[in-house]
Amino acid sequence: MPIIKKIKKNLTNQALIKESNLKTLFRLISERGSITRSELAELTDLSPTTVSSLIDELIQSGIVVCTGTSDSKSIGRKPSMLEINAKGAYIAAFGWGRKGLKYFLYDLKYNVVEHLTIPVVNSDNFTQTIYDTIINKTFRKINKRRLLALCISIPALIDSSNQVINSSVLGLRENENIVKELAELLTSIPIIIGNESVFFTYAENEFGGAKSAENLIYINISEGVGAGIMLNGSIYKGSSGMASEFGHMTIDIHGPECACGNRGCLECYLSIPAIINKYSQYAQSMGMLPAESIDEIAIAFSNNDAAAVATIHDVADILSYGICNVLYLLDIDKVIIGGSIRKLGQPFLDEVRRCMQTRAVGNSFGNNLIKRCAIYFSTLDNNASCLGAAKYFIDNIMKLSIEMEHRLFIY
Ligand SMILES: [Zn+2]
């Protein structure tokens, strides 16, 4: 008995080491774009024989291809170049919003193979619509076996330990368990569901201006206010996956009631509907017409319209309080603002920084934190959470040679 147990354990360890080496080679090929076997051996300290054997497996599985020869001037046979086979596998990603779904099918090089905007009229029909799209669109476009995962990005509070999703934006029914519904509908594909701000943060760190940042907060200001935090180069999710709810930090204990049940949350002042409401109050008190969209306020702000200037100052001031609180707590060095608020342009960010500086006057501790911290707008588009979800799956969940222990992943 003990001997059998030992062999099994060794086999498991060997399998884990092999999986880890395969993932490392896959990642290096993906990052370099094009690379030879001997370069991989040098970068990984694996023997050339091990690299060759593992690469042969990746080629056989169809996710890596040989593409011509290297232009190195070495004598003898030219080494062949290795690349990720973009069409070797695919990931379907959905961005779940209040009015419907955005669907993206990515190949292994993150090219968009198919993109649809799908209105969902009845909020009960989201999970069924995702299922129908996979069956009627994805599986008609690609071989079913080539779909690696279904990723869903949601603007919601997600308690990953209890698999519960709460969202004031989505208007879910009480006790509605979309996680369970989806798992029952799609029984064979790995499903990854996560907070959109976490996936935005991951995309920002992998594809955006924050590339490889160590400590950052990504603040997404649109219909609601979400955030993702990266500490020491990793997404910080907290004990149950609900960390970084920046929008529900209390800024005024006597403030208006928030959809979350608390009072005076940042979201009550910073969400786009709250900004439109604030502008309209100023405009009406000045005998001007109210606004209906952030675009109108952006135009009014660029024209120095008094109601817009007053609104933007108030919004920047409150946002600066929120950012300073995060800086004092976490000492991060990058703040990235995403979402529709970017329409207000660089003068808005300048106002936020100016307000932050007034917070720190005479306070060398605060001054240093604020001086060191860069604040800028995300350059990725509003669909980047889907891209981030697909990349998150490939980097952190995908298995190349061993079976996944679970089929449902909640972040
Ligand atoms: Zn709240």
Q: What small-molecule ligands were found?
A: zinc ion
The main sheet orders its strands as 6-5-4-7-10-16
The percentage of residues in β strands lies in: 15-25%
**Mean pLDDT figure:** 87
CATH level 4 superfamily of the largest domain: ATPase, nucleotide binding domain
Q: In the CATH hierarchy, what is the architecture of the largest domain at level 2?
A: 2-Layer Sandwich
Task: Output the structural class.
Answer: alpha/beta
Q: At the first level of CATH, what is the class of the largest domain?
A: Alpha Beta
Task: Please count the helical segments.
Answer: 13
* Relative helix content: 40-55%
What is the terminal-to-terminal distance?
Answer: 40 Å
